[in-house]
Amino acid sequence: MNELLTLNYPYIAFSGLIATVVMTTLMQGSLELGFSRLSMPLLVGTIFSGHRSLAVILGFTLYFLGGVLFAFIYLFLFSAIGTTHWLAGLAIGAFHGLFFLVVVLPVLPYLHPRMATEYDGPSVLRRLEPPGFMGLNYGYRTPLTTIVGHTSYGLIMSLFIPLIP
User: pLDDT tens across 142-161, in order?
Assistant: First the structure.
């Protein structure tokens, strides 16, 4: 853990930003190409605003900030396992994506003020469709595109963090 004290934290934050740009490009690209209807920046933004244009801007800002913060979680995980090998990055990213799909997305309707639940249909305030298990309500390719996006994040972080030889 001593090696954590000697790292360049602005560089780690910048690495997280680059990884987030790639992950977001892959996931938003899959949205635009019709592979998925999942837009995490939109879902994040609509937590705070019901105005779609403001929600998108706010969502992208918070999503990128979250990606930078996740860089430090990845740094801690790489330090804990003792390697930054690219296979470790792929594995951590894949687990991150799987956790997001299996745990976070199904719970989201109960936390999100503008999202309907699986049990209660849409209302005037809760108009967003719930993602369902693994985001399958947003398209059957959503799990694949989400895992690919998060795995790319993990790979990039493993390549950028020169933690342990």
Answer: 999 999 999 999 999 999 98
Tell me how far the alpha carbon of residue 67 is from its chain's centroid. Answer: 7
The predicted model gives 17-23 an average pLDDT of 96
Task: Tell me if the pTM is above 0.70.
Answer: yes
Around Cβ 114, how many Cβ atoms within 10 Å? 18
Other beta carbons less than 10 A from residue 104's beta carbon: 12
Contact 99, 111 (CB under 8 A): no
Both structure tokens of 54: 């403001």
CB-count burial class (<10 Å; 0-12, 13-18, 19+) for 82: exposed
Residue 115: helix, strand or coil by DSSP? strand
Q: Which amino acid, residue 63?
A: Y
Which is more confident, 73 or 122?
73
Q: Which of 75, 69, 89 is nearest to 152 (CA)?
A: 89
| Structure tokens given for 133 | 């298990």
- Report whether pLDDT(73) > 50: yes
User: 128 — phi, psi (to 5°)?
Assistant: -75, 140
Q: Is 50 helix (H, G, I), strand (E, B) or coil?
A: coil
